[in-house]
Amino acid sequence: MGVFDQYIPDWLQVISAVFLLTSIAIAVIIVLEKRSPFKTAAWILVLVLIPVLGLIFYLFFGQDYRKRKIFSRKGLHELGKLRLLISNQLRQINKKNFNFHSIPDEKEKLISLLLKNSNALLTTGNNAKILNNGKTTFNEIFNSIEKAKHHIHLEYYIIDDDEIGNRLKQLLIKKRKEGVEVRVIVDDVGSWGLKKKFFRELISKGVEIYPFMKVRFPRLTSKLNFRNHRKIAIIDGTTGYTGGINFADRYLKGIKKIGPWRDTHLKIEGDAVACLQVIFSADWFFVSRQNLGGNNYYTKFTEGPGIPIQISTSGPDSDWESIGQAFFTAITGAKKTVYLTTPYLIPPQYILAALTTSALGGIDVRIIIPGKSDARFSKWCSFSFVQKLLEAGVRMYFYQKGFIHSKLLIVDSVISSIGTTNLDFRSIETNFEINAFIYDENFTKNLENNFIEDLSESREIILEEWKQRKWYKKLQESFAHVFSPML
Question: Is 407 among the catalytic positions?
Answer without folding.
Answer: yes
